[in-house]
Write a structure and sequence with these properties.
Structural class: alpha/beta
Strand order of the largest sheet: 4-6-5-7-8
CATH topology of the largest domain: Rossmann fold
CATH architecture of the largest domain: 3-Layer(aba) Sandwich
Distance between the termini: 61 Å
Number of strands: 12
Largest sheet: 5 strands, mixed
Number of helices: 22
Bound molecules: iron/sulfur cluster
Number of domains: 3
Shape: globular
CATH class of the largest domain: Alpha Beta
Radius of gyration: 21 Å
Length: about 425
């Protein structure tokens, strides 16, 4: 009998599915491929078959549970609130437990990404070779077709000349001699560290201008999103422990990455194996704040206090909701409140603002054809607004949106919403 410990933890969740099929109207993957196993109902059914001993954990099943963006559109629209994200991630974890990670993921997750210093060293090595990649526009590079798994003609941003970790100071005092209202830990996240360091510095700048003392602990690590959403719970727990320790002295941990904030908050949901872990992960969740919710909900800054940077005056902006903000954390009003209040900026709501952009982490690596089709819908939504700029708060979405904007030969540029403010 196969070990089914991880699956058994979510058995009750899978049982909640009433097989109504309502999720099929909302699942971006099913909307494109019309395959029953792509949608929540099909995946729940398969997991139950395994739990009942009627289905083996085959490699084909691994492919099926891998084909999910974890966008939670099905969960948000399910009449019985079946949490397919938990079921899918548990199934991936069970797969890893029973069949192993495979050489590439084992090396990437356990030898590179789980060790901050090693991760930095490997990315620096990769940066040394990026001149070999053809460039398309500005600092955007084109991955050639021969890099099939990652490439297929996609556009990726260049890695930063100097990573955020090599630019930040350990402590930033509040600006203009203000008395500190609060002291927070800043979680930088890998994409901001390696690709968008200027955005990280900008977020710190905005926080200090609003009277916050910002500390950047050197011991912080990757949040673990790619790792535990792929089912490597063992490494996920190890990273959770490292991050909890790195931020033990703070009441709040602030990040500008929607995926990181959601991943750090959700250690308690996906990872606990013991009651003690559950308790500690729940305590950690309370500290985590995305930059949007920290500014509006914790600091209670009136949105009209934010000033638009000169270079954006007269522009029209539209907002893209990252799945990890809107459905994982219910953050949707806070960034809109700021954008709508910025004098000199015209805000236009996009019809499918909360539709997934098609990234889904490694989903876009294995299913880039589907990613393109899903992103095309997002591109149509952006085009219809007539916006000059697309604003969001997740570096992963920024990378994916930029890829498809360039692929669609559209003129828009993508920004993190705090890049717009003084
Ligand atoms: S909408 Fe919910 S209950 Fe209905 S089939 Fe999908 S997962 Fe099951
Ligand atoms: S999480 Fe998203 S991609 Fe996965 S089954 Fe639900 S709607 Fe489809």
């Amino acid at each position: 009998m196969e070990d089914l410990k991880e699956l058994k933890k979510v058995e009750q969740l899978a049982d909640q599915c009433m097989k109504c099929g309502f999720c099929s109207f909302f699942c971006p993957v099913y909307q494109e491929d019309k395959i029953e196993t792509s949608v929540a109902r099909g995946k729940n059914y398969l997991v139950k078959q395994v739990l009942q001993g009627k289905q083996e954990f085959t490699d084909e099943m691994g492919t099926i549970i891998g084909k999910c963006l974890l966008c939670k559109r099905c969960v948000a629209n399910c009449p019985s609130k079946t949490q397919i994200d938990r079921v899918v991630v548990a199934a991936r974890a069970q797969m890893v437990k029973n069949k192993g990670l495979g050489f590439i993921k084992n090396f990437a997750f356990r030898k590179v990404m789980s060790n901050r210093k090693a991760f930095g060293r490997y990315v620096k090595m990769a940066r040394a070779f990026q001149w070999m990649m053809p460039t398309t526009e500005g600092t955007i590079r084109h991955l050639p077709d021969f890099l099939k798994a990652l490439g297929q003609g996609r556009n990726i941003p260049s890695m930063a000349k100097t990573f955020l970790r090599d630019q930040v100071k350990p402590v930033y005092k509040p600006a203009n001699g203000q008395k500190a209202k609060m002291k927070v830990g800043f979680f930088m996240g890998c994409a901001m560290d390696f690709v968008f360091p200027d955005i990280g510095l900008k977020i710190i700048d905005v926080l200090t201008k609003h009277g916050v003392e910002v500390v950047v602990p050197e011991e912080q690590n990757c949040c673990g999103a790619a790792i535990y959403f792929s089912g490597d719970f063992e490494t996920g727990r190890m990273l959770a422990e490292k991050n909890i320790k790195a931020f033990k002295d703070f009441d709040y941990v602030v990040t500008g990455c929607g995926t990181c904030s959601s991943t750090l908050k959700d250690y308690q949901k996906y990872l606990p194996d013991t009651e003690d872990q559950k308790k500690r992960y729940e305590e950690f969740e309370k500290k985590i704040k995305d930059s949007t919710e920290f500014l509006i909900d914790v600091l209670k800054i009136p949105p009209e206090e934010f000033k638009l940077k000169k270079e954006f005056e007269g522009k029209t902006a539209t907002w893209h909701d990252p799945c990890h903000l809107v459905r994982y954390q219910n953050i949707k009003d806070q960034p809109r409140a700021i954008l709508k209040a910025l004098k000199g900026l015209k805000y236009v709501e996009m019809a499918n603002a909360d539709g997934c952009c098609g990234m889904g982490g490694s989903f876009s690596v294995y299913h880039y054809d589907l990613t393109k089709k899903i992103a095309d819908k997002k591109m149509n939504g952006i085009k219809a607004t007539g916006a000059d700029i697309v604003v969001t708060a997740c570096p992963g979405c920024m990378i994916n949106l930029t890829d498809h904007i360039l692929r669609s030969k559209m003129p828009q540029k993508v920004y993190h919403f705090l890049e717009l403010v003084e």
